[in-house]
Write a structure and sequence with these properties.
Largest sheet: 8 strands, mixed
Number of domains: 1
Oligomer: single chain
CATH architecture: Roll
Radius of gyration: 17 Å
Number of helices: 3
Strand order of the largest sheet: 2-3-4-1-12-15-14-13
Distance between the termini: 43 Å
Number of strands: 15
CATH superfamily: 2,3-Dihydroxybiphenyl 1,2-Dioxygenase, domain 1
Structural class: mainly beta
CATH class: Alpha Beta
Shape: globular
């Protein structure tokens, strides 16, 4: 049975998990370890982060530089869909960061499949994700899930270990209009932490379910990464 949304509902329709941003001690090393296993490429690299994906339009991973050691905290794992993935295969990137490889469509691309989080109350968390515009999915045992496009957020019961060095930075959801998302968030009484204007994108950052930072990002017509 799927969880139904209650309470506020943002008047936005996020279409995909655009990216998951992570803190790691060495972004270049972490990116290299992932690229050694998957046909991905570096889309952007700065002194602060490395952005990795198959293409800018698909789900990506951002590795931000941060002091070590990192700890899991709320994040259990990242799942990536791979056309040729074997069941139960995974990539250990160190620092308790695991990327699970799940079978994707044979003619598909390598992209984000899911992000798995540890939360105290999966039912309440799922409702909160639905209120951000995700769609309900059938639960699996005690695990709740909320779908966005072909990907989903997976919510496992458990108390996340308290840490000041978490792996998870934020979850980025692609929206059509940041202005509409901002107005809707304010109307709903959500905490908008900041607005970011970049060369090829605009975004707002919200305090999301269970304190997870959520970025609602809009790609501008000039959006192009190399």
């Amino acid at each position: 049975m799927a969880v139904e949304s209650v309470g506020y509902q943002l008047d936005v329709n996020p279409t995909i998990i655009d990216h998951v941003a992570l803190y790691v001690s060495d972004p270049q090393r972490t990116a290299a370890a992932l690229l050694a296993r998957l046909p991905l490429r570096i889309l952007e690299e700065t002194d602060d982060f490395v952005l990795v994906g198959r293409s800018p339009e698909l789900g990506k991973l951002t590795f931000f530089s941060a002091s070590s050691p990192r700890e899991q905290g709320q994040l259990l794992r990242i799942g990536m869909a791979v056309p040729c993935a074997m069941a139960s295969s995974s990539v250990d990137l160190g620092e308790e960061l695991t990327v699970e490889l799940v079978p994707g469509p044979r003619d598909g691309e390598v992209t984000l499949d899911h992000v798995a989080l540890r939360v105290p109350d999966p039912v309440s968390s799922a409702r909160a994700w639905l209120e951000l515009g995700l769609e309900p999915m059938e639960r699996v045992g005690t695990i709740e899930r909320a779908r966005i496009g072909d990907a989903f957020v997976e919510l496992h019961p458990g108390a996340a270990a308290q840490t000041r060095r978490p792996l998870l930075n934020h979850v980025g959801l692609l929206v059509e209009s940041v202005d509409d998302a901002h107005a809707s968030a304010v109307d709903a009484g959500l905490e908008v932490r900041r607005l970011v204007e970049a060369e090829n994108s605009r975004a707002i950052f919200l305090t999301g379910p269970d304190g997870v930072e959520v970025e609602l990002v809009q790609h501008l017509p000039s959006f192009a990464l190399v």
